[in-house]
Amino acid sequence: MELSCDILVVGGGIAGIAAALKAAREGADTILIEKNNFAGGIAIHAMHRYICGLYPSDLQAPINTLNGGIAEEICLELEKLAPGSKAIQMGKVYVYPFATKDLLKVLKNLSDKQAGLKIFYETKIDSITTEQGSIKTAFAKQLKGELIISPRAVIDCSGEGAVIRFSGAAHELLPENERQLAGFCFKIKGITNPPDILSVSVPYYLFHAVVEKKLPLYMRYTKFYPGDIDDEGICLINLPFGNNPEKTREAKKQAVKAHKILADSLVSFKDSYINEMSSVIVEREGLRMTGQYMLTKEDVLSARKFHDGAIKNAWPIELWNQDKGPTYQYIEAGDYYEIPLRCLKSINIKNLYGAGRCISVSHEALGSTRVMGTCISLGEQAGLAAVKGL
Ligand SMILES: Cc1cc2nc3c(=O)[nH]c(=O)nc-3n(C[C@H](O)[C@H](O)[C@H](O)COP(=O)(O)OP(=O)(O)OC[C@H]3O[C@@H](n4cnc5c(N)ncnc54)[C@H](O)[C@@H]3O)c2cc1C
Question: Which residue's CA is the nearest one to ligand 1's atom 12?
Fold first, then answer.
């Protein structure tokens, strides 16, 4: 099938949905391509419970989100499905809680009913042609057949930078052992009378199993969150390798071992069982586009503002280091920094924009920009910029 459009958005994660909604709402004929059969990307694969990056870095309960727009709209839609939900404090920051099934529903409802937006699920971009420094054609594989798309502009929201790679756009990619830890989740069901301290006692028992060499070293960074319903909990394993089938099998094996240790150690886990696992390992860090500006750690921590500041953010630099686990560096309370629009524009491909995880930021700055709330606003601003040709 041959198609043409104003804006092609690649990737239907949280950034891609926002980019496609905004482009279509601005009147552009928009196509969204997603390789999975659902929207939401990592947020769904890794069973997220909280939207981070929505609020200023204040210790008082926030009234508004920093960027408003589609991020605010998604929170309001989530609240309709879980009345009474509001931002909750987690250490020095506030996050918005949600249930995975509600996020799936909200993203589907918003995108399905959006005029001017055509979505192709189970479709994967696998090559791009360029002409005179611009993307000319995108080729996408479907279960049966192929799409050949001629777009005016493309927004890469694939997380892994598929369009950036295929189009020869300039980018950076650290060797695997220098990137942030990746993640893999498993859901435990049948937890009885869960005490409040499970988010402390689960990592404690797993840490001891690591010391006793019953589990590999990386399992010492495992986190535990309560699930959507009372008898559920989610374990997030943080592991030093990217996604491939062999490593996913290894992560699944460790999940089963970890659950057995928990069932033997904690009374409330005695009759529990694993009822769901991530289907893939999800990466915090991958390829980053080289844009017309690269946001740095200094920009983030000095709460720098820019003449073309397009997105506000106050999430700390949260780096999941391979050797020392998570570290946090905070922006001064009450302040925020800006992400310039130039970080969303490729330096060498004229009609290519990026949003979400693969924008033009340093390894450290990515520790702050990669969270869901920020990715939604990045998508929205990339959608607007692509339509207006900014
Ligand atoms: C372990 C872990 C825990 C995290 N916890 C939190 C948290 O609690 N709260 C929070 O706010 N953030 C959290 N984050 C960060 C956040 O989830 C992600 O950075 C964010 O969701 C990224 O969104 P995205 O849209 O940029 O990318 P993704 O979610 O990766 O979406 C990209 C989409 O593109 C699709 N795609 C890829 N290649 C192609 C292709 N060639 N063709 C078509 N489609 C393609 C993928 O299938 C995917 O749906 C966490 C991240 C990780 C890894």
Answer: 371
Query: Is 14's C-beta closer than 6 angstroms to any atom of ligand 1?
Result: yes
Q: How close is the Cα of 355 to the center of ligand 1, in Å?
A: 11
What spacing in Å lies between the alpha carbon of 158 and ligand 1's midpoint? Answer: 8
The verdict on the CB of residue 181 being under 6 Å from ligand 1 is no
Distance of CA 126 to CAs 92, 167, 342, Å? 42, 11, 26
Q: Pick the residue whose CA is nearest to atom 52 on ligand 1.
A: 284
Is residue 88 within 8 Å of 61, Cβ to Cβ? no
Write down all domains in the chain, each with its CATH number in brackets: 2-175+285-388 (3.50.50.60), 181-277 (3.30.70)
- pLDDT tens, residue order, the chain (390 aa): 999 999 999 999 999 999 999 999 999 999 999 999 999 999 999 999 999 999 998 778 888 899 999 999 999 999 999 999 999 999 889 999 999 999 999 999 999 999 999 999 999 999 999 999 999 999 999 998 999 999 999 999 999 999 999 999 999 999 988 999 999 999 999 999 877 788 999 999 999 999 999 999 999 999 999 888 889 999 999 998 777 888 999 999 999 999 999 999 999 999 999 999 999 999 999 999 999 999 999 999 999 999 999 999 999 999 999 888 999 999 999 899 999 999 999 999 999 999 999 999 999 999 999 999 999 999 999 999 999 999
Cα gap 19→383, rounded to integer Å: 4
Whether ligand 1 lies within 6 angstroms of the CB of 51 is answered as: yes
Q: Does the Cβ of 243 fall within 6 Å of ligand 1? A: no
Q: Which residues, listed in sequence order, are joined to residue 2 by a DSSP beta bridge?
A: 148
pTM for the structure as a whole: 0.96
| The Cα angle at residue 79 between residues 75 and 83, in degrees rounded to 5 | 165
